[in-house]
From TrEMBL:
Domain CheR-type methyltransferase: 35-276
GO MF term set: S-adenosylmethionine-dependent methyltransferase activity
Keywords: Methyltransferase, Transferase
Organism annotation: Cohnella thailandensis
Protein name per the record: Protein-glutamate O-methyltransferase CheR
Domain of life: Bacteria
Pfam families attached to this UniProt entry: CheR, CheR_N
Biased composition, class Gly residues, residue ranges: 1-11
PROSITE patterns listed in its UniProt record: CHER (PS50123)
UniProt entry tagged with the keyword Phosphoprotein: no
Gene Ontology biological process terms from the UniProt entry: methylation
């Protein structure tokens, strides 16, 4: 319903409250947000990838990168592309997922794990470790090396999961650029490594392949923290620098999933920018090393 205002030159909505129309910038941002919501809903319904509760600013940056990759000038133009051309969805997915990792990333965490967690793991007959969001596998191999050096690997099983199947393929291959080895060697030494890091891989031209024996107790599988459920009980869960990309709702879902999957007195390892505090499960954990984000489940 609209009413005519004398001398006004047009119709004004009856429910108009006197506020001016949104500015051009605000209107454009509102349209973009709606387009992003529609795109993420289409991705979820068509492919099962659920990015709907990722932190908005982060997912918007990644979608804009995907627009450049696919040569589109608007978010809405991506929708028919990904619905009718599965290959374009695979290309867009590479922009939406975050595969930033390195061997022994945050070396002080691995050193603290070696000194403060490993002694407890020695008391277990079997060790199940879940590496959630394992990306291309560098940190999985780091943990395998640590367990090998501490005499624990033969009784351990590492379940390494990620949403991105292409990242998992790279993790299974265990092949990485030779140029990264200087940094990885430095990280390994700072993490308390006890051998020569080069003993674990073979170099060939501009790449290195880590020895297949390091993968003997690793199982890789696709798992989506936004939609999938617990699949085992674990003594250790590592999910480092993943929750920072989720909004609060999805963070809470992941924390509940970890709590349901972690055995009593099991260890949860988070990323350097993540916290165990301010959620429904905060009181269920005690700090093993709060600075390195290592926590033990107590109830």
């Amino acid at each position: 319903m609209a009413v005519h205002v004398e001398g006004g030159g047009g119709l004004i909505p009856a429910n108009w409250n006197g506020d001016p129309e949104p500015s051009g910038t605000a209107a454009a941002e509102g349209r973009e947000k709606l387009e992003i919501e529609l795109l993420l809903e289409a991705i979820y319904r068509a492919y099962g990838y659920d990015f709907r509760n990722y932190a908005y600013d982060s997912i918007r940056r990644r979608i804009r990168h995907g627009m450049q990759t696919l040569g589109e000038s608007s978010v809405s133009a991506l929708i028919p592309r990904i619905l009718h051309e599965p290959e374009q969805m695979r290309r867009l997915l590479q922009s939406l997922v975050i595969n930033v990792t390195e061997m022994f990333r945050d070396p002080s965490m691995f050193k603290a794990f070696r000194e403060k967690v490993v002694p407890f793991l020695h008391t277990y007959p079997h060790i199940r470790i879940w590496h959630a969001g394992c990306s291309t596998g560098e940190e999985v191999l780091s943990m395998a090396i640590l367990l090998e050096e501490e005499g624990l690997y033969d009784k351990a099983r590492i379940y390494a999961t990620d949403i991105d199947e292409r990242a998992l393929e790279k993790a299974r291959a265990g092949i990485y650029p030779l140029r990264n080895m200087k940094l990885y060697t430095q990280n390994y030494i700072r993490a308390g490594g006890t051998r020569e890091f080069s003993d674990y891989y073979t170099a060939d031209r501009d790449a290195v392949k880590f020895h297949s024996s390091l993968q003997r107790n690793v199982m890789y599988a696709r798992h989506n923290l936004a939609t999938d459920q617990s699949f085992n009980e674990f003594n250790v869960i590592l999910c480092r620098n993943v929750l920072i990309y989720f909004d609060r709702k999805l963070q809470n879902r992941a924390r509940r999933l970890f709590h349901e999957s972690l055995a009593m007195f099991g260890v949860l390892a988070l990323g350097s920018r993540e916290t165990i505090r301010h959620n429904d499960y905060s009181e269920c954990y005690e700090a093993i090393d709060d600075g390195e984000k290592l926590y033990r489940r107590m109830r």
